[in-house]
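Our preliminary data section would be incomplete without showing what the modeling component actually yields. Below, a chain of 63 amino acids is followed by its predicted structure, encoded as tokens that our downstream tools consume directly.
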Amino acid sequence: MQHDQEWTTRETLRFPSWDDVTRGLATTGFVVEESWGDWTGEPITPASPEWIVLARASDAGDG
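Predicted structure:
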């Protein structure tokens, strides 16, 4: 087998809105406990490089 081939691919990444993320979590039985916009613990803003979410399964009546 030869390993000198080159492959090229193109992909588009699409990310949901924050509302879609939280709604999806709630719909599947989770509650957002905390969230951060980066690994230093800054709040989520439109310019945040990450969305880090701590969620837990909701108890009956939480969601």
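Residues 32-63 form one domain. The mean pLDDT is 90. Preliminary results of this kind motivate Aim 1 of the renewal.
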